[in-house]
Amino acid sequence: MRVQVNGTSLYVDVEGASLEPDGYTMREKPTVLLLHGGPGHDHSIFKPAYSQLADVAQLIYVDQRGNGRSRESDTSTWNLDQWGDDVRALCDTLGIVDPIVLGWSWGGVVAMNYATRHPGHAAKLILQSTVARWDLDRIVEGFRAEAGDEAAMAAKAFLAEGKPWTFVDFGRVCAPAYCPAPPAESDVQVMSRIVPNPELTMSFMSTARFDLTPALASVQCPALVAAGTRDPITPLSAAQEIADCLPGARLEVFEQSGHFIPDTEGERFFALVRSFIAGS
Predict the structure, then answer these.
(1) pTM for the complete prediction?
(2) What domains are there in the chain, each with its CATH number?
């Protein structure tokens, strides 16, 4: 379905009921709003793996402004503050109270910015493979450690210039380093289903200069921070930085994982997320 939010139309999909029969009453489940990575990707990256959470929560998938099926909007509004405000406005429009907001990669950046701009609105945050501060040198060294000098050079060229040819080299040399294991056919299919906006990806990644760490102290809700030790673009040191700055955050480290934790340690990851949603 499409939802009008802050002057644009966002594509939204819903999985699972908010209210379910439970004996003589209706039991209300929490609502999890999932924010995809990119930017320039869409919500399909979460499907079908995250569907397994639908028995403990209602899942709200959204293609964020400028992304996927929500691409048509004023490009001047494609910025972190607007994306963060869109999260609050989408919840208000849909009548979602006390959302649990899960942000993966760039979606985690949006989730943190939303939480700092609207403190007290989220019930919980789940921050998966993300960063609160843009550090080009840290990313470049992450790719060097995981995939060598060629990958480091390709990452630096793309993230500094954002040109089509550097984007191609980044995809060829750096993308395979996102996950330690070769991708399964199902993973290739998931990535192929994305409706991309490469212009947004190139523009944002080459100009992204943000630091949310000072503002994280204002966020008081519980937070689960998940990070892989072999993630070159949102490395473990970035997750530790988030956990240090976010009051009451819980850091979970995945020793065998890169950027795509569900692909390598999915059983443990989803067990932790389910437990966190349930409140334990």
Answers:
(1) 0.97
(2) 2-133+210-278 (3.40.50.1820)
